[in-house]
């Protein structure tokens, strides 16, 4: 009974239901991405998955998979759907990581046309060329000939995808594994039909259930892509596009979190000296590159002490966890390394957190200390103490 259910009469139906469940989950993700991002890749993926779904719904109603020896019209259409779905799916995977190119579009159309030509030839041979009972042998021979070419063509598609698409996308290992599964599934069908006359239980099991693993991998592929996009959106929302440092809003939120948790910490506020003159004499592109070099130094220091952010313009800030002496050490390290490694200097101020001081006040204190460094001759570090001269720009923490 169990063998009949999973490998016999109902085997194709059971496996088709499992695949349809995976397709339902995958289509829902792909369709959601299509509606929100309007990208061709999601259109291609959605169309391909719907074609696969139609194919397996048909399998449930027909009660069997396409076989190389069958000549029925419905089974011809299923064979065509298999190949077309595979082509469109791989085009969609390519488009996930690459811009849509005319060459790719043309090749996909040519691939689809080849499938239609082979299926059309089989249909024509069965219904028009040899449409009388006496020509049954001729129909079988024509089908066998065209089936061989269809099988060769599927192998060719797998090879093309493996060779050309793999280097151009992310999740390479997952994609290669999916193609290997397609290869094994197709090889099982070919061997079972041509060599074992569909009598091999193991090959039948491979035909039915190995594709379940393929569609599970496709589900994981798209799911991981969704996670990548979510991470990219989140990362872009909290970082500065030019330097890669955390943006002002995120930085201030983290400083406030430290204050709320009463964790010993402080803020280091650095401003590149003579940056406006640098932009005016060397150009804004050089100024941007200089800012990136300073940011890279800040990032390396932040790995040991806390996190780094860009406060605005040429202003770099560090959130340093630790006691005042550790904050002062990080500030001096930033000043020294910037002077040594970037060709510019920075004026640095720092302030340690005290009870009752919020993030905005702490950052303003570090800013005032930085302003004292500017007034004192630049390229130096000043720690905040009460009585420092108030900066004309100390209120910039209140800007939006």
Characterize the structure shown.
This protein is α+β, with helices and mostly antiparallel strands and 400 residues long. It folds into two domains: 2-238, Rhopdopsin 7-helix transmembrane proteins (Up-down Bundle); 248-398, 2-Layer Sandwich (Alpha-Beta Plaits), CATH 3.30.70.270. The chain is 70% helix and 8% strand. The protein contains 13 helices and five strands. The protein has helices spanning 2-6, 11-37, 40-62, 73-97, 102-129, 136-165, 172-194, 201-238, 248-260, 275-282, 284-305, 324-342, 359-375; strands at residues 265-272, 306-312, 315-321, 346-352, 381-383. It has a five-stranded mixed beta sheet, with helices on both faces. The longest helix has 38 residues, at 201-238. The N and C termini lie far apart (72 Å).
Task: Write a compact overview of the structure shown.
With 400 residues, the chain is α+β, with helices and mostly antiparallel strands. The chain has helices at 2-6, 11-37, 40-62, 73-97, 102-129, 136-165, 172-194, 201-238, 248-260, 275-282, 284-305, 324-342, 359-375; strands spanning 265-272, 306-312, 315-321, 346-352, 381-383. It is built from 13 helices and 5 strands.
